[in-house]
Amino acid sequence: MTAAVDKIAAADPTAPVVVGRRRRSRGLVRGLLPPLLVGIGGLALWELTVKVGRVAPFILPAPSAIWEQFWLSRSVIWQTGLATGANALVGLIAGAVVGILAAMAASRFRLLGEASIPVAAALNALPIIALAPILNNMFDSTSSIPRRVVVSIVVFFPVFINTLRGLREVNPTHRELMDSYAASGWTFTRLVRLPGALPFVFTGLRQASSLAVIAAVVAEYFGGLQDGLGSRITSAASNTAYPRAWAFVVGACVLGLVFYAVSLGLERLATPWRRSR
Q1: What is the pTM of this model?
Q2: pLDDT of residue 237
Q3: How far, in Å, CA of 150 to CA of 215, rounded?
């Protein structure tokens, strides 16, 4: 293969670049085509099952009915999606920052690390259904703080655990080198621990990005401002407008995919050396 590429390069220096682009294009098609076909097939089977089986719309609306309501309500879905997305984004950033700082402190002090993991696990075990109403009663009914606090709590655990794991996995050679320079603990963390932990940090962020949207939507079920996707889902369902409720669910799915795609893009920008592998 190398000899063939060398011969092509001798004839045309730009040929290897073209070949590389073709390979990436083929890899992209191979990666996208199977899930796309499965998705289309699943929707077709769903539509056929509802139409032929005459499934009641309150049990399972047809995809065509959901799409119709999605298109008719697209402006409302956009506005409510922005409100939910803002709560999810603020909570994601706050929870991620606290999680990373807590992981840095836990990796620096062993006693703190041993005590912090059970506390983080306890926070992760808090049910949103119980937490959201309590926080809504603690703050004003027009405040978005309760929803953002819920998102921050949900986001904290995956970011904290993954970051802590990355900070603890240090190459002994790097540790010995920094010890030979008499580097301080903060210098060692800044130059060695954090760069080495970046893949773990972004693994936690990818997990937390989808959880942030889920937490924001669920937190909107329990009172407060009626400006998000969650409140519209409950409102449409209570009025037996099930296709419209599913349309808002689709909007929440799209929002979650956007958050995940952005976190994945940030990971590729922050860790370019992993793309070359």
Answers
A1: 0.80
A2: 87
A3: 7
